[in-house]
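Example record used in the benchmark description.
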Amino acid sequence: MKLEINGAPARSEDLAGAFGYGHFTAMQVRDGKVRGLDVHLRRLVTSTRRMFGSDLDTDAVRGYVRQAVRGEDALSVRVLIFSRAMDWSDPGAPAAPDVLVRTGPPQEHEMTPLRLRSVRYERVLPEVKHVGTFGLLHHTREAKLAGYDDALFIDYDGRVSEASIWSGTGSRRRSATSGPPTCRGSTPCS
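Model output (structure tokens):
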């Protein structure tokens, strides 16, 4: 596993601010390539503006990822954006982002039906893939303890919003909820 911040090996003192306030994207590298890299980068740019009021240099991010995966054909990669420059006495001020790249073993996902436990839950800023994961991990754990594969989150308007680490509406997986469908409005159920 590699852990680098802004292209340099991460030191423990560099990591202190990386997990309380930030956002990330996770991707799989196969044959040295990432499917949908432009989508991952757009998400990072949008979320960086939202959370830090600053721009993200996507060329730098590409370079950091390229450096971290060099010589490997298959890996899991997580890119986490945080800011060591964030001034918590003035959190509205723009803050320069830092880029943490973590690599690990590749993940293979079976394309089989999942048994999902529907749970009424909404993350803060659900449009941002942020590091605040206590609720989603708790509900995933509870679902697994109850014999399900994962949790499917239902928002307070009764719509399917997402699952623990994948989008329920954008997933290629087909699934059925553990109870009657609760999808309404424009949210697809399939």
